[in-house]
Amino acid sequence: MEKTTTRMIVAKIKDYAPALGLFVFYLVCIQLRQAGYVKNYWLQVLMFALINGMVTLGLYLINGITGQFSIGQAGFISVGAYSSGAVTTLLFNFPPLSVYVKPFVFLLSIAVGGIVAGICGYLIGRPSLRLKGDYLAIVTLAFGEILRAIIRCIPQVGGPRGFTGIPRYSTLGWIVVFFGLTVWLMRNYIHSSFGRACVSIREDELASETMGVDTTRYKVQAFVLGAMIAGVAGALLAHVLGFLHPDQFNYIRSTDFLVYLYAGGAGTMSGAIVGASLLTILPEALRFLAGWRLVIYGIVLVLMMLYRPTGICGGKEFPFLIPHVERDALSENGWETP
Amino acid sequence: MEQLIQLSVYGVQLGVIYALIALGYTMVYGIINLINFAHGDFVMIGSFTAFFAVNLTGVGFFPAIITAMLFPAILSILIERLAYRPLRNKPRLSALITAIGVSIFLENFPRMVPFIGPNFRRFPELIPMRHFYLWGQASINTIQVTNIVASSVLLVLLIFLVQYTKMGRAMRAVAYNKDAAALMGIDVNRVISFTFFIGAALAGAGGVLYSLTYPMIDVLMGVWLGTKAFIAAVFGGIGSIPGAVLGGLLMGIIEVFATAVYSELGYGSSFVVLILVLLFRPSGLLGKAPLDKV
């Protein structure tokens, strides 16, 4: 009895430790900035790193877990960014907006961004997920580019000139909160029966269908969830930048997220997070080299894949990203716990 | 009618260039299942090679296009050896990420080299411009004729190479089954290098032909030209050589007609058509459907 209670308490602490860790991280960042050690510029780089981390986590669900190859994430980001920007800029643009109302408008716009991106994800995923491998990749790429072409034709959001004047509501705090929520959601999804169905589809689609897994349903579900996360990330991004341009979201931007995912290690959530944050910060850290930084970035990518083809994390997961129930089960059965 | 003929001429002229570039994508994909993201950059390298060949030595069209085919071809063999070969038996996506890395390198290295730089350059006029009237006001000019003739010659050469030579037979064998081909005594590495060589040479030629028509070149021209060609390859059925040609031609024609209708449509239209084609024929117009293995 005694032992079980201690274990439960330890488990509870372990459950909340990551959230606490994220909160402490946020406090440290804010304190460092107020003390003048960290410039606003680096804080913004950090915000981009977290936003990219969110998108990469969504892609991890589609690509790493379900094994569906999508090069259209930038399209979903653009939809999320533009629709949420439209909510805050076009719908609620009357000037005397109270300070107390602003957060609600912001939250509403984020929800709109996520939902619109999710709907686009459904419209794209439903017909095209029966394509396999590279063909699916091309269709998602094409859809991303079509979304961009449509945005270029809407004069209300600036068309080809870009969407200006979006209020800069996103702060590090908001982004940390949504990043934490994404990690929490993804961890729980992946370790639920939904996640296991997705893994079975990745391993062998035909076999899992034979075992009674509704493969279409899970593939579409994962795709829509990944798209929604990208949409929320886009909504946050729009309110960091204050300015959007359709060319920011071309397919080359989508390949960036693939690079983050595979450079970090496609098999784990840790890989997605580490890859996105390292590779967002690396080109910024190399900025003193001016244009040479991208040359070096290219070389680093090639070398990394040559010497570590499984990615930086190489199949290892941070322990807090595995639910304690699962870790306990593993250790009780005599498995080595990560 | 006049306008229709005129647009078709433009469409075919653009289409043959897409087809040339698409061939490189399709051949590399057919042989090692790799989407070579760096392929578009060989187009740019070809253009710049011709640009420097002409401006430094003052040679004419033929020496320029031959240099522009050889230099990217040799470069692509080097890249294949250094970056793609070590990953051949690793997960397919690591090779894809490597290709993205190579592409980032190939775009940014010339940008930073002082004598190339990020600015647009004016491509020299290699072919004297003359117009021939076809039907009323619809005309075809010497550059369009050069494009169509040069691409057709290269295409015939390629088909001859693939169908009737020993190397071509080896390429088809490796594309069909790499391991079995190796057991039959084919040097798979050499065949793959050769495929990269041919693909990049065609891309180089495509770059020169494109720059003749639209004579402003810069280091990023390969990015979207490559994307279009890649889509053309998928459109026709990736891995199939006739498919790449058909896809390229259709892409060029559709794009020109859509742009003529409304200028913002040009870019998106090819993607819409691509999706429609893939939804009804999931492996492209001339591609073979993959078998599900149980």
In words, what does this structure look like?
Chain A is mainly α and 338 residues long. Chain A has helices at 2-34, 40-65, 73-91, 102-128, 133-152, 172-190, 193-203, 205-210, 215-241, 251-264, 269-285, 292-307, 324-332. Chain A starts with a helix and ends in a 6-residue tail after the last helix. The model of chain A has no long low-confidence stretch (mean pLDDT 84). Chain B has 11 helices and 4 strands; from the N terminus they run ααααβββααααβααα. In chain B, a hairpin with a 2-residue loop joins strand 2 and strand 3. In chain B, helix 1 (2-32) packs antiparallel against helix 10 (241-261) and helix 9 (221-236) packs parallel to helix 11 (265-280). The chains are: A mainly alpha (338), B mainly alpha (294). Chains A and B meet through helix 5, helix 10 and helix 12 of A and helix 4, helix 9 and helix 11 of B.
Helix content of chain A: over 70%
Largest interface: A-B, 44 and 47 residues
Strand elements of chain A, count: 0
Number of strands of chain B: 4
Sequence of secondary-structure elements of chain B: HHHHEEEHHHHEHHH
- The number of helices of chain B is 11
Radius of gyration of chain A: 21 Å
Strand order within the widest beta sheet of chain B: 1-4
Quaternary state of this entry equals heterodimer
Q: How far is the N terminus from the C terminus of chain B?
A: 54 Å
For the terminal residues of chain A, how far apart are their CA atoms? 27 Å
Strand content of chain B: under 5%
Percentage of β-strand residues of chain A: under 5%
Principal-axis shape of chain B equals globular
Helical content band of chain B = over 70%
Described by the principal axes of the CA atoms, the overall outline of chain A is globular
The SS-based structural class of chain A is: mainly alpha
Task: Profile the largest sheet of chain A.
Answer: none
Largest β sheet strand count, sense and barrel closure of chain B: 2 strands, antiparallel
